[in-house]
Write a structure and sequence with these properties.
The chain is α+β, with helices and mostly antiparallel strands. It folds into four domains: 123 residues, no CATH class; 62 residues, SH3 type barrels (Roll); 133 residues, no CATH class; 33 residues, no CATH class. The protein has 19 helices and eight strands. A five-stranded antiparallel beta sheet has the order 4-3-2-1-5. The protein has a three-stranded antiparallel beta sheet with strand order 6-8-7. Helix 2 packs antiparallel against helix 4, helix 3 crosses helix 5 and helix 5 runs antiparallel to helix 7.
Length: 436
């Protein structure tokens, strides 16, 4: 049996007023709680942290780095305060106040301990694959909100001296208000579950959402927001529910496929398209990539024309090879032999509808890497080569006239003006400049 300070005073034949005895009892309780605080925080907690800090498993190390032990020690102190109050303080107002204080103390530090434990679990899961596949931060935040609401209900019940069941039953009438207050967390929780269940978004995914100017890597999926680190190192915050209600582009499938698409066209000047002459064909046959194509195509064309006894003296009769068709064939063979083009994915070299800027020859292929810098280098090298070889097919790339082109016309116009003045002296007729 644990004797109270009043029992010790009576045993020592010391008689004081009830107020003094109460003060002495409170002082003894405060001293014992101070000793317990020193033993817990500077003894047990420090020893446990030091041992777990060097553990080979990551979970104990995370516990040692968190305030979980400190909150647990404060919780034990609240329990000790309640026990001492029941044992040493006589029933009455003082006991009721101290018991209420100890209960609120225990509830608050129990809540903080739960928060700390959830943070530890979240940090531990971040080292595992499950953190990537599930919106754990949103789930943890939801659990914290629920724990905070429950703790608040119990604290209010302690303060008003009523059962928590009465308060919980009264929440039914406040459901609409609570749903309005927690609308965003509820929508975010539902959206997080849908994103996870349908595997729509994970940490590290490349997300593109023009509506929110988001184009970068997902770095956080929380209860109400999703953070995206854009490629210019800015961070865009998107409401979690917007990922369900609006459309967005996830580039994860591209990254997992191992190939990234090249879809770009080169515009050919229509005035440079013509049939291939024999001399030109002989020069192109020297190409290692084109020789087989030209030989096979030439035999096919000759057999076709011979079978129909075509009169080849007219360009309107029979079949002939064109420079633009041979150029397309060369690009296709070149791409199929390129070391950085994916051979198991779609590969096309196609001619699109002519426009005011010429006839587009589009390259549609996939690189065998998804790394951004490497992809751009491969694409640039590929079109560097295309621009350089297009002249070998007697084709011209369409380009709108620039100031440099206009400056090149100045000598021609000056020569025309001089000749015009020679034929028509000034005052005898209109000059070329006037006509122009």
């Amino acid at each position: 049996m644990l004797y109270s300070p009043s029992d010790w005073l009576a045993y020592a034949s010391l008689h004081f007023s009830p107020v003094v005895i109460l003060l002495i009892t409170l002082a003894c309780m405060l001293a014992l709680l101070g000793v317990l605080h020193v033993v817990l925080h500077y003894g047990i907690v420090r020893i446990l942290r030091d041992r777990m800090h060097t553990d080979r498993f990551i979970f104990p190390r995370l516990i040692s780095q968190s305030p979980l032990f400190r909150y647990a020690a404060m919780l034990v102190q609240g329990v000790a305060l309640g026990l001492l109050t029941r044992l040493w303080i006589a029933p009455g107002t003082t006991q009721d106040i101290l018991l209420a204080f100890s209960r609120i103390w225990m509830l608050l530090f129990a809540l903080l301990a739960v928060f700390a434990f959830l943070d530890i679990v979240l940090s531990w899961c971040s080292h595992k694959k499950m953190a990537v596949q599930l919106p754990l931060k949103g789930i943890v935040q939801s659990l914290k909100i629920i724990a905070a609401i429950v703790t608040t209900i119990f604290i209010v019940s302690v303060l008003i001296g009523q059962s928590p069941v009465i308060l919980i039953s009264g929440l039914g009438a406040m459901t609409a208000v609570l749903m309005l207050i927690f609308k965003d967390p509820i929508l975010g929780l539902v959206a997080g579950v849908q994103l996870s269940a349908n595997n729509m978004l994970s940490l590290g995914d490349w997300l593109e959402m023009p509506k929110f100017n988001a184009d970068g890597e997902v770095i956080e999926i929380a209860l109400t927001t999703v953070k995206v680190r854009n490629w210019d190192n800015t961070v865009t915050t998107i409401p979690t529910y917007a990922l369900i209600s609006d459309s967005f582009k996830n580039w994860r499938a591209m990254s997992e496929s191992g190939g990234r698409r090249i879809k770009r066209a080169i515009h050919i000047d229509l005035n440079s398209v013509r049939f291939i002459s024999e001399t030109h064909m002989q020069r192109l046959t020297k190409s290692r990539l084109l020789s087989q194509y030209i030989l096979e195509k030439s035999r096919e064309v000759e057999a076709y024309n011979a079978a129909r006894s075509e009169d080849l003296s007219s360009a309107l009769n029979g079949r002939r090879l064109t420079n633009i068709g041979t150029f397309r064939a060369y690009l296709e063979v070149y791409l199929r032999n390129h070391p950085h083009i994916h051979r198991n994915m779609t590969l096309l070299v196609r001619q699109l509808a002519p426009t005011a800027t010429g006839v587009p020859i589009e390259i549609y292929a996939f690189t065998n890497t998804v790394a951004w810098a490497e992809y751009e280098r491969i694409q640039s090298d590929l079109f560097d080569h295309i621009f350089a070889v297009v002249g070998e097919f007697e084709l011209r790339v369409f380009q709108e006239p620039s100031g440099y082109d206009m400056a090149g016309l100045a000598p021609v116009l000056a020569d025309l003006k001089r000749k015009s003045n020679e034929l028509n002296p000034p005052g005898t007729g209109p000059s070329v400049a006037t006509a122009i």
